[in-house]
């Protein structure tokens, strides 16, 4: 009898300590961690890990394209008030400046792509755009432009989730085990997604696919495909007439039957090319933001990636 009472009392003490240390880290007024993320995949990955323990918001609203988004004064206030700030890195060229001016030494900052070996951008585009876009892109030591689109590889997405687990655990160690358990459940789904990409794209007839901007480099590399992008690492980079001619030529020679476009970017260039070579168009979604329509249909990262896989299988087996 006595032993069982002691055990209960120990459990109670342990729980109180957990609850108290949890509250100390939280400043949202709801007793939950206040987490600010940038664009959709960062929001989704963070929500999956945080579960019920955090209020998670995305700064960049549905329907907006993150490559050319800039924070308002209101957004800066949200960054300043956050317990944890989660960003991908590189896409959010404004983040470092925003964090520096937001102050607050207690905020935990998660750059989710940190620790992943980033690929360089495409050489031809470096020559064309290097000077105009110097400030927007992170460059490696030798001045090469780095590709930020790691979230589109289900394998690398798992590493981003791990970085988020570490950040949330640092800010709120009391819920460490829940963050680990939530992350493990989501990572299991990402592993299954990775497996279906691997088997689904293993025996496709065609390995080349034409995309609206160079967002699918990591995905292509992971599954042995070749991405042929119309625009560079940012979708707003308009292709030159020479670049258009080169892609049309490539598509003709390699019998490309589908030209992919995106949901958040004007598809006119993709449509022009598809008409020129008498190809179809279809959506390949770089998950840089949800549309209102995606939201209405309750589409999330896993659902959209599954649609991407189906679109690729269809295009590459024609
Ligand atoms: Zn992009």
Automatic annotation (TrEMBL):
Residues 1-24 form the signal peptide. Residues 122-142 are annotated as: Disordered. The keyword Calcium does not apply. The keyword Cell cycle does not apply. It comes from Paenibacillus chondroitinus. PANTHER family: HIGH-AFFINITY ZINC UPTAKE SYSTEM PROTEIN ZNUA, HIGH-AFFINITY ZINC UPTAKE SYSTEM PROTEIN ZNUA-RELATED. This is Metal ABC transporter substrate-binding protein. Pfam families: ZnuA. Residues 130-142 have a biased composition (Basic and acidic residues). Gene3D superfamilies: Nitrogenase molybdenum iron protein domain (3.40.50.1980). Keywords: Signal, Transport. It comes from the Bacteria. Belongs to the bacterial solute-binding protein 9 family. The lineage of its organism: Bacteria, Bacillati, Bacillota, Bacilli, Bacillales.
């Amino acid at each position: 009898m006595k032993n069982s009472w002691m055990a209960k009392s120990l459990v109670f003490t342990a729980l109180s300590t957990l609850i108290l240390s949890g509250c100390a880290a939280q400043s949202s007024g709801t007793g939950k961690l206040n987490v600010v993320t940038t664009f959709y995949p960062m929001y989704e990955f963070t929500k999956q890990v945080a579960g019920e323990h955090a209020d998670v918001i995305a700064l960049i609203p549905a329907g907006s394209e993150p490559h050319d988004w800039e924070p308002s004064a209101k957004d800066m206030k949200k960054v300043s008030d956050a317990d944890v700030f989660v960003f991908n890195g590189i896409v959010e060229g404004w983040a470092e400046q925003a964090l520096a001016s937001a102050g607050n030494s207690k905020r935990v900052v998660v750059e989710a792509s940190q620790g992943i070996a980033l690929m360089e951008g495409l050489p031809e585009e470096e020559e064309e755009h290097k000077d105009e876009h110097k400030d927007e892109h992170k460059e490696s030591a030798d001045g090469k432009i780095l590709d930020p689109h790691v979230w589109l590889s289900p394998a690398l997405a798992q590493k981003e989730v791990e970085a988020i687990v570490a950040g949330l655990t640092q800010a709120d160690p009391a819920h460490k085990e829940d963050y680990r358990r939530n992350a493990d459940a989501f990572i299991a789904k990402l592993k299954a997604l990775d497996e279906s990409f691997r088997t689904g794209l293993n025996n496709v007839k065609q390995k080349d696919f034409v995309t609206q901007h160079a967002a699918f480099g990591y995905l292509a590399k992971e599954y042995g495909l070749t991405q042929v992008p119309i625009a560079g690492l940012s979708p707003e980079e308009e292709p030159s007439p020479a670049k258009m001619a080169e892609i049309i030529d490539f598509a003709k020679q390699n019998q490309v039957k589908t030209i992919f476009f995106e949901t958040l970017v004007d598809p006119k260039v993709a449509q022009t090319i598809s008409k020129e070579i008498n190809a179809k168009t279809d959506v390949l979604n770089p998950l840089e933001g949800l549309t209102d329509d995606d939201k209405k249909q309750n589409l999330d990262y896993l659902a959209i990636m599954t649609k991407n896989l189906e679109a690729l299988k269809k295009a590459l087996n024609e």
